[in-house]
Each structure stands twice: as C-alpha cells, then as structure tokens.
C-alpha cells in the first residue's frame, strides 16, 4: 500500500509557525511488521533505540532514533517540567486517521542516585528522556514519525514514511548467533555477605529500619551479544514489563515485575512490593511458599514499612488514597512477592516529575528512613546502580505516564553483561538467605542470556 490516500489531507494541514516539530501519526495494519524486522531495518540507529512493553502486553512502544533528548546531570523538577512542556508545545500533531489510540511519548529515566562515576554507566546521563524519530506501537499497529518543521514538505515526509514502511515489511530479519559464555563471576560475594551482616548490626527498630543492598554478577562472552538475540529472548517471560534501552555502546535490559506508578486522568496507581519467596516447578512447595509469605512476620513487617512509606510520600499530592490492609501474592515466573495495589486521586495540576521525585526510591529498592538508607547505599554498596532499580518509563503527550522500577535487570555492553539484584535487609536478616534470594533475582536475566551457573 502507499499513503497516497492521505495526500489530500496532508495538503490541507496548515503548519503552525510556532511549532519546531511535525509528527505524522498513521495506522500500519497493512504492513505486518515485527520487532525483529524493525531492529534489522533500523540497524544504523543502533545506540538510539528502545522497546518498552507493559506488563499485560497490551501496550508496546518501540522508539527509533532520538530526535530530541532532554538530559540533565541533576534531577531538578522545575527545569525538567518546563523543558518537557515546551517540547510538547513545540510539536504539531498530524493524525491521519480517525480512531487512532496510541499516544506520542517521551521515553527515558532517572538514575538510581547521583553517585559520581566515570564507569560503565557513562553512556547514560543522570536524567534522560527521548522523543523518538519513529515511535511504533505494534500492539495497536500505529506509528508516529517526527520531523523538524522546516526540513521538508509534509507530502515528501509522507512519501518517505511510506517508503520506510514498505521497506520494513519486506525486510528479512537478520539471523543471529548466540554468544558463547566465557566467564561468569559474582562480584565480591563474600564482601557483600559481610556488608549485609554489618547492616544488620547497624539497623534497629526505630532510627534505621531497613536498607536494600544489591550485588552484581558479571558475565563475559567470547563474541558480541546480538540485539536481535536479546529481543527474541525478552519475549520469554510474561507478566513482567519489558525494557530494552540502547544508548551509545550500551543497552540496559529489564524484566521488572514492579510498576512504580501509572498516571491516567489525574489518577495514580502504584503498589507496594516487598517480601519474596522462590517459585519452583513443584506445586506443593509453591503452595507452602505462598502461605509462608502471607504469614511470615519478617516479610509482612518489611512489606508494611514499604506500603506506609509510599502512602506518606503521596499524601501531599492527594486527599484520597485507597488500599487493602492485607497484601496479595504477586506471581512471577521464578519468584513470589507480597503486593499491595494503591490507588490515588491526584490534586489538580500535579506534574509527573514531582511524583517521581517524591516516590523514588521506594523502600523496596532504597530502605527506611529513605534518606539514611540512600546515603548508606551510596557509601557502602560496591559499584554504581546506574539504571538498576531506577524509574524508567514513558511520559505521554497528554501528561499521563507510566514508570517501572527497573529490577531484574542488566547492563549489556558489547561482550559483557552486568546483572544486578538486591534485597531488603531488616534487623534479623540472614546474609546467607539474602544471598540466595539475590541468586533467584538474577534468574530472569540469566534466562534472557540463556546462561546457567
Ligand atoms: C531489590 C530487588 O527487589 C525488591 C523488590 C521486591 C522484593 C524485594 C525483597 O523482597 O527484598 C526487594 O525489595 C531486586 O529485585 O533487585
């Protein structure tokens, strides 16, 4: 098909002289395009591509090329909010069909903290949000194509897009070789256990209640890790968010079970997730683990702390916050968590960056009190978290948004992958048990890489 039928429509569009960008928005049902075709066809955009898929698989956003990026070395709510609003105000949307339901979005995130390093995370700034050149939604079958206002005639842009779409649909996805593992190495495992023991000594039941301590596992390969291999493998586990985020020579990958928050029509949905037990293939054992989790004092206490803290953080932005007192079980492929959904009616005109600042890091990834735990992590934990346990997500054109806590994640650079996993430490935690729990939390990424220990 070609897009000639839209040409008359395009001719009628009057370009708003204030806009810096024009975004064409069209349906792509006819083309039947796959993720593998997209990442094969747009190879020259490597380092500027992402894929974000919601937990229920109902929503998917693939960005190709970073047309405009908002970047910061510090997380400053006001300046980020103004730049984001100015950017959206400078885009003229040109929807070329009725009934389009996808939304143009900025994709990006904020690093866990501002621990200063020149390390493996240097491809990513402290804060980054990207407006993509092409934004595909393969669930709803729509695409957004954003061009600078003065770059070309709208009809030429439409023709170009038409060429890209037919090129894409005829693309034969590249085949890939699975990279062979060279070394699997836990980073400072004994030191990590010692740190957990030290933290248990420092923690009490009043002034420092909880800290989440993470460790890393480095896997090196004999050759480069192919993005198409990762994309294929990321489809394996359902019921989690999927994040694949390329920047420069790095890719950050996450299969997170945890939504930080979603804002829609002035309502915010979030959840407390804390307290874990492994899930196995043995149904009897699984029933025991779930029952244990629901009744175990330590897990329930840890969960309660997380929930209370989230509710407190959101109080300044809302007068109505709803949740159940008793947590539910959240089931993932390899692990169970205690889980409490929280619904919040937001006051008028609350901006997404205000919420991000208030809620991150939740005690599920930081600790309590938040500031003391954050400082402890910054000073004591080995290495830099970067985007691990950080908020990553989408800010839509109408200001609705969805953010994930990027757990069960790894940083991939050419021939190596660094995996991250942590657990909540409270008074009475056992370093051996927590070590095993982090092993379980490495599993989703080990599985993506098809690596076994
Ligand atoms: C910090 C992680 O998990 C958090 C989320 C759920 C349950 C957790 C726990 O039970 O310790 C952790 O707080 C991680 O996966 O790296």
UniProtKB/TrEMBL annotation:
Enzyme class: isomerase
Ranges where the Chorismate-utilising enzyme C-terminal domain occurs: 190-441
UniProt keyword list: Isomerase
One Pfam family this sequence matches: Chorismate_bind
Gene3D superfamilies, alphabetized: Anthranilate synthase
Catalytic activity annotation: chorismate = isochorismate
Molecular function terms from GO: isochorismate synthase activity
Gene Ontology biological process terms in this record: salicylic acid biosynthetic process
InterPro entries, per the entry: ADC_synthase, Chorismate_C, IsoChor_synthase
EC number in record: 5.4.4.2
Regions crossing the membrane: none
Keyword Isomerase: yes
Family the entry assigns: Belongs to the isochorismate synthase family.
PANTHER family: ISOCHORISMATE SYNTHASE ENTC, ISOCHORISMATE SYNTHASE MENF
Protein name per its UniProtKB record: isochorismate synthase
Naturally occurring in which organism (per UniProt): Lacicoccus alkaliphilus DSM 16010
